[in-house]
Amino acid sequence: MSPDDLQAARALVNPGDTPERQNEKLLTIVGSLIRHAEEITEDRGAAWVQFERAAMLEEQVRDRTRDLERALDLLNASNARLAEAHRETEAARLNLASAIETVQEGFALFDANDVLVMCNSRFNGLLPDIRMQMQPGLTFTRYVEIAASSRHLGMPDGMTRNDWVRMRLMRHQQHHFILTQQMGEDRWVQVSEHRTREGGTVILQTEVTDFIRREREARGRRLDDQAAVLRPTLEHLKIGVCLFDVRLHLLVWNERLAEFLTLPRNRLWRGMHFDALLEQVRGQFIFPGGHSARQLSDWVRRARRIETFQIEVTREGGQVYEIFAQELPDGGFVVSLEDITEVRSTLAELSRANETLEARVTERTCELEDALASAERANASRARFVAAASHDLLQPLSAAKLYLASLGDDALTVPARRTLDKAQNALLSVEGILGALLDISRLESGRAAIDPCAVPLGPVFRQLADEFAPAAALKGLRLRVRPTEAVVFSDRAYLRRILQNLISNAIRYTAKGSILVAARRRGGLWRVEVRDSGQGIAEEHQELIFREFQRIDAHASASEGMGLGLAIVDRAAALLGHPLSLRSEPGCGSTFLLDLVPGARPLALPEPGQAVRIGRDAEGRELVVLLIENDPELSRAMVQLLEKWGVSVLDVPSGEEALELIEATGLVPDRCLIDYQLGAGMSGLDCLAVLRERLGDVPALIVTADRSEELAAEARALGVAVLQKPILTEALSEFLFGAGSAS
User: Fold this and answer.
1) Where is the Response regulatory domain positioned along the sequence (predicted)?
2) Helix or strand holding residue 167 (H, E)
């Protein structure tokens, strides 16, 4: 048989046919071959060959048939074993189903793909309206949605069914969890979910209704016991109180609540739902605009009542009540009702009385303002009168002194000479009194002009020593003025006047001994002391001596003063901000103490005739100062001062204009004085930064009244010093004509 014949023969025999079918096909093929061989008469040799081939084919067919029969036997045996295994599996499944059906709990098994494999009849047995939908093949998500649709499934307070579905799917992500779920009317099951080793899920549902009921009964007994203890306490309260449990059921209340709500006793009972109580009293109260009883109901139903609920309501009779509600630790809440009608009435009366009082206060204030204005006008008139009178009196006094001085000594007798000396002393006393009156007038009127600056105490002390040494020697007193290098921040003229009055007062009231003037360092301050060995001052008189026209020695003559010296000292010290104190005891002398702030050592200011000279640098070139100041008055004052010193000033009101001026003229200033706050434009520091980018490290000062640490830090970072307002002329002079740099 040729290969083609073999291929054709194989095509005729289908391996998938049963052995019987294959044998039938082979027999048909053999018969056809035999008939074909018999019909051939032309070539007997070829026929014999064909016959041999047919015989061989038949033998092969018989071998294949035997092989197929053996394979069929094996297949039948396998099918028999598979059928047996299937019967055993089905029996095992039925046994497993029967086993889980006997389990007292609800049971369900989901595979690793969250598809329901099997469940027993107790699974969701308390939800009869969905029980028939619990069939194998259900996905877990669909199962949860079906369970949520059951009308028997109880929802926790404040949770919707969609919320419950989200909660249940979220808990499903955990490998193990347990929750208690209400199913049916007052029926409860404990649901536990566990993962299997293969990734599936087993759900067990155990009914715990009896346990929860017993727990409720026990809790109810405890609540009854607590209510029995609590009720007498509540009855003593003047407010109506009621307590509700977590399920919004009434636990306990007092009689005051029933009285306020005008409810018969049979309309309140233990276990009453909050909604039933609210429905009975809803129409009794008038809520304020925009509010209603629904807000209280919404608050009660919140899952978490973090804040309290409080509102005032009224009745048609005019009574006002305050409703207050607060959550309890166990999830319940307490509601109180308080009659605040009397309180609100009292507050209204107080408000009306307050309005009347405010009107009276306003009226009295106006009267006081008028009186104050009159007093201020009178004081101003007195000050003007004192100033005018003192000025008018000083003129003839000066003339009288000149006339007396013009009298020759030779023409006078000794008694006349003594009389002339007394007249001159009297005129000096009057002149001193008038000067003191002028000082008091200026200090009281607030017109005293002060110029705080750095004042060296050494020169002031030397002048005072020279001035008062003769007067002290005349009384036999020793005046000691200790030299000092201290520099303080004060007004030079008023500081000298204060010390003059203190030394003069010490000499006047010291009969023997000594007077000491010294400056000592006390912490961060300089303390000037004027100490005498006089008669001393009793404690009850120590405040009195600082008043006008007050003297301890009532027998002293007017020539010794009018008691204005210490009054001037007190007012001048207060004006300058120098704390003044006194230490004294009768018979032990007195010490007046004046505390002064240290000041920078000033440079020698130029003489008036040297203005042009100091306005030039070491090479004789005129100094050019760029002044950036947006306050017109301060700018004019600065320009006037600098030009008086011989400085050429370029003044502009803003940083932008300063940059434009530099850009247009190409001028490089020798110094820059820049205000920090320049209005809506760039700040002084911003302007200086740009100027230094264009001009290099030009010497500059930032002028400001801002004393904040933030500004100081920014200035330090830019390498520029800050000059505080009010501007010290000494510091300004040092910057312009001293080292020449503020960096």
Assistant:
1) 624-740
2) helix 161-172
Q: In terms of C-beta distances under 8 Å and separation of at least 24 residues, what long-range contacts does 70-79 make, across chains too? A: 71/19, 72/18, 72/19
Domain boundaries, the chain: 69-102, 104-214, 237-344, 449-596, 623-737
682 class by beta-carbon count within 10 Å (0-12 exposed, 13-18 middle, 19+ buried): middle
d(CA 742, CA 720): 6
The rounded distance, in Å, linking the Cα atoms of 646 and 640 is 10
Compute the residue count for the chain: 743
Q: To which CATH superfamily is domain 623-737 assigned?
A: Response regulator (3.40.50.2300)
Q: Decide yes or no: CATH 3.40.50.300 for domain 104-214.
A: no
Give dist(CA 651, CA 628) in Å, integer: 6
**One-letter amino acid identity for 160?**
T
Residue type, 264: P
Query: At 533, is the secondary structure helix, strand, or coil?
Result: coil
The residues near 655 (Cβ < 8 Å, ≥ 6 apart) are: 628, 674, 678, 681, 682, 683, 684, 686, 687, 690
pLDDT at site 610: 37
DSSP state of 153: B
In CATH, the number for domain 237-344 is 3.30.450.20
User: CA–CA separation, 435 vs 463, rounded Å?
Assistant: 20
| Cα–Cα distance, 721 to 739 (Å, whole number) | 13
* DSSP state for residue 385 in the 8-state scheme: H
The CATH number given to 449-596 is 3.30.565.10
- 34 forms beta bridges with none
Query: In what helix (H) or strand (E) does residue 426 lie, and over which residues does it extend?
Result: helix 414-445
More confident residue, 392 or 454: 454
Per DSSP, which regions of 245-319 are E strands? Answer: 250-253, 309-314
| 515, amino acid identity | I
Q: How many CA atoms lie within 13 A of 12 on its CB side?
A: 14
Is it the case that residue 115 has pLDDT exceeding 50? Answer: yes
**Cα angle for residues 266, 268, 273 (degrees, 5° grid):** 135
Please state the separation of Cα 326 from the chain's center in Å: 29
| Beta-sheet pairing, 106-110 with 116-119 | antiparallel
Contact present, 114 and 169 (Cβ < 8 Å): no
Residue predicted with more confidence, 561 or 315? 315
Tokens of 661: 């001026």
Give dist(CA 23, CA 61) in Å, integer: 8
Matching CATH topology for 104-214 and 237-344?
Answer: yes
Q: Which two tokens stand for residue 524?
A: 């961060």
pLDDT in tens, 418-448: 676 666 655 555 555 555 555 555 555 555 5
Nearest to 566 by CA among 480, 504, 510: 504
Task: Kindly state the percentage of the chain with pLDDT values over 90.
Answer: 11
Whole-angstrom distance, CA of residue 65 vs CA of residue 71:
10
Among 148-162, 495-509, 661-675, 726-740, which stretch is predicted with the lowest mean pLDDT?
726-740
Token couple for 215: 């727990």
Count other Cβ atoms within 10 Å, centred on residue 603.
Answer: 13
334's enclosing H/E stretch is strand 333-339
